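DUF2079 domain-containing protein
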Amino acid sequence: MIEITAPETLVRRGGTVPSRTAPLLVAAVLLVLHTAFALRNHARFRTTGYDLGIFGQAVREWAAGRLPASAIRTASAPPGFEGEALPLLGDHFHPVVALLGPVYRLVPRVEVLLVAQAVLVSAAVYVTGRTAQRHLPGLWGAGPVVGAVCGLAWGTQSLVGFDFHEVAFALPLLALACRAYLDGRLRAAAGWAAGLLLVKEDLGATAAVFGLLVVHKARDGRDRRAGWLLAGGASLAAVLVLKVVVPAFAPDGRYLYAGQVGDGYGFLDGWPVKALTVLALLAVTGGLVVRSPLAWLLLPTLGWRFASSCRRLGTGAALLGGTGASRVRGPGGRCTARSAAAGDTRARDAVGTARGSAGAAAVPADGGGRGAGLLEIGPAGSSGTGGGPAGTGRGAGGIKQLARPAPDGPHRGTARDAGAAGAPAGGGLAGGRPDRRLSRRSGGRRAGRSGG
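Predicted structure tokens:
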């Protein structure tokens, strides 16, 4: 017989079992808050095409039974790419996003991604709270307090505050893997950690480290084999994804971000900001996390980010300059290599601003280097093509060309279903009217503009 004595505990014969109520309540409150914040952000045009619009298009393709591709992602496609939509598995490896396809098929709105992200965060909060209850039985309120700290931590808030990202799927997987590890269920822990391989290509290193932790803690042969299998399998899978799978889908046959590690702005630079980053991560637990072997899981991600030549990844700085080739921060924060050679008609170096895709999304309107200007994306559910001397808008919204084409040819700017990029209903720039606040820069000079 179970007697309910308090919301925090249940008294059972033979001992005390923590109640699920308190962590569940904390997770539910954070779910409501995070969902309301994300949807409000989107309604106020504070979400972007990078990355909400891109993932919205990816999920739409998965829902239709096709491999993910994005017209928005062509903004920073490799030079020479002429397609209307970039294959996203050639950019990052995140097949786990396909799980949202059936949901999107039922509710074909980009807001589904924002709600899903809040649900994934709350699931991790609940699991973390329950883990604290189990392993800190002498501390009253450990479950809800630790759960709340997890949900309100700097890293979690940064995730919720920026559009949608596939790494949200890693939160509950890591929470479940760590709970099983602490409980001594090492094979289950290895199984949960293996799921990280489907979230993003760089998480293979994290899964491999987790496998080594399982090996270190294992006390029997089966657990030890599971650990070695995870460590070796994750390492091999990461290499195959980076060297074979992603290049097979990439337009230029290579992994776009490989050159960002170790050159230019690298490991030895920017340590004041990097040190603050580490301190902000440690502050969540008051530094106590370093006493746990699970702290080793921090090293892979911190390592490649701090060694990256993309300043945004290492320090949050905006731009890197160079000669001959420059490394710039793409719309929404992607660092991509771009050709700056004079006369290269393939260079996609004119970045305009598109509004309405998922708020404000910066994309180039270049049509493969033949013309450069501004794009305007109208309300959801429309499609359009820009063209002609000043361009035309087609449909209720869609895309409208706002700037004159370059002298060497007509402008081409296309997008399939601007609504799939995440425009709120009734949002965007109604009737294809230009937003006078929009401007573009080309070669460091402010260019003139003409209305459509």
